[in-house]
Predict the 3D structure of the following.
Amino acid sequence: MLMRKSILSVIIIAALASCHESIEERALREAREYTERFCPTPVVNYTRTDSVTFDMQSRTYTYYCSVTDVMDDKDIISHNHNNIKNGLLESIIGNTQIKIYKEAKFNFAYILYSAKQPGKVLFSVKYTPEDYER
């Protein structure tokens, strides 16, 4: 009877340990789930999130967005490049929902597409931990 309980305990511990996902696996799952549940998001400030992905090899969490209306213009995006870049960085710094990923030193990227011309990239940026850990 004692032997049976010991074996059962080992099996339960092994089963529980095998269910533990890595931080990278969690990011991959959460990005997929966010995209399935919420994307595309409603347009806010001329932008909507189309999807979110996580690349395990580069450890990069990427937001794919579309810009609409007056912001859907390469000249306006180009003219405001630094403001957009700084604003997105501030959103990473202030976002408590991604705290665990910032602590794991993930990279974050944003790719902004034209809503009028699907597939046309208007803006792209990638932030490393050196950028958001200040």
Notes: The chain has a mean pLDDT of 90. The first helix runs from residue 2 to 18.
